[in-house]
Amino acid sequence: MARTARVYNFTTPRVHTTQIMNLSQTVQLTRLGKIRLGIKKPIASKNVKCRKDNHPNEEICQFCSYPVQTDHFVFDGPEDYPPGIHEALIKEYGEKPKSLEFFFPTENRALVFPQALKYYKGPRLFCRGDGQTATRIDEKTGGQFSATCPCDHLGAGCAPRASLMIALHKIKVQGCFQIDTGSLHNIIRTNSFMNELGGDPAFPETIDQSLLRRISYVPCRLTLMPTSINTPDQKTVMKPMWVFSFEGDAQMAAQLRQRDAISALMPGQPALPALPPAPDDRHDEIEDAAGPTLNGEAITPSDQATGTVTVDAETGEVIEPGAEREPGADEGEGPEPKKPAAVSPPISDALRKKLFAVAREKAVTEDWIKTTIKERFGKDSTKDLTVVEADVLLRAIEDEGPF
């Protein structure tokens, strides 16, 4: 039998399936165990018979016991935690701790503090809803279906439930401990504390107004504090309620707003970022590479001034900066002002040609030009004039006569 020839497809790449819809996107925090808010006590009328018939080797079960809230946190047994965790909890917090130092492990509040209306039938969760839609177990088929929430079960077994997932960084940085609560006060206080730290994600404008602008990896403390509350039947009772606090001062709050928050939990905290130096108001004392400045602009000392002069438009005399002429000096009533040497570049060939062209046009003779240069500037030729002197001479020629 002839062998079938193989055909290789070099054009279409093979697609490898790497995710499963609605499964790969489902994530959860690693749970190291539970921390409880109370203990179970036996029901005297049921415990003896239930223990004899159902659990002779155990003292109580869920059917012959009831929960009792305590004024401290309760750790499970060593078998309910990973190796070494129970011993570390007892060593750090003791047998009956009333407060725990923790941080929230993520900014995803749906993972940190999931909340729902829950209805249990025995140990099994029968229905869970959000106040609009619920997912319920079909008792006949065992499947799930959607139902309207709330329903008639609300208040008759269905109640608000929440699970707080916190990381006890003194025990283990990675992994969370779960604390369940059905208290409306605890649920409200937890949501309010997270909004104080990081704002409400539903209202972005509150994030910048919050204390830290984040909730994850922030050192916090959870304390059980006796609080007076009103029960639904209008009775006042004292119960241990959750009280949250931020374990830091104003400096730590500033650090947490500016840098990686988890580093604040570690020893050897870096100092606050250096602030830029304050502006120096002594502008007249500041010197840069170009020389001294005044109000941000470069200035030149009087003994270094070059290239800029002030000239009298009519006489051609150089006026010294800041100098004032004495009254009557022009009429000979006072001492004649000193004539400092003009600082000006020499006359160019183009300007000399213009001088003689205007002189020919105005019929001014060369003898008159030489005499005027000698008397006024003390020079013998137009080649010796400066640009300023040539400009004064040019205006005199245009006026057709001496100055």
Amount of beta strand: 15-25%
Report how far apart the termini are.
127 Å
**Which strand order spans the largest sheet, edge to edge or round the barrel?**
2-1-9-8-4-5-6-7
Helix content: 10-25%
Largest sheet: 8 strands, mixed
Number of domains: 2
Radius of gyration: 47 Å
Oligomer: single chain
Order of helices and strands: EHEHEHEEEEEEHEEHEEEEEHHH
Number of strands: 16
Compute the number of helices. 8
The coarse overall form would be elongated
Mean pLDDT: 80
pLDDT below 50 for ≥5 consecutive residues: which ranges? 269-276, 281-290, 327-332
Structural class: alpha+beta
Short key terms for the protein model shown above:
8 helices; three-stranded antiparallel β-sheet; 403 residues; alpha+beta; eight-stranded mixed β-sheet; single chain
Model description:
This protein is α+β, with helices and mostly antiparallel strands. Helix content is 21%, strand content 25%. The protein has 8 helices and 16 strands. It has helices spanning 44-53, 85-93, 109-112, 184-198, 250-258, 349-361, 366-377, 387-398; strands at 31-42, 65-75, 99-102, 115-121, 124-129, 133-137, 144-148, 158-166, 176-181, 220-230, 236-246, 287-288, 291-294, 297-298, 310-311, 318-319. A hairpin with a 2-residue loop joins strand 13 (291-294) and strand 14 (297-298). The radius of gyration is 47 Å and the shape is elongated. The model is unreliable at 269-276, 281-290 and 327-332 (pLDDT under 50).
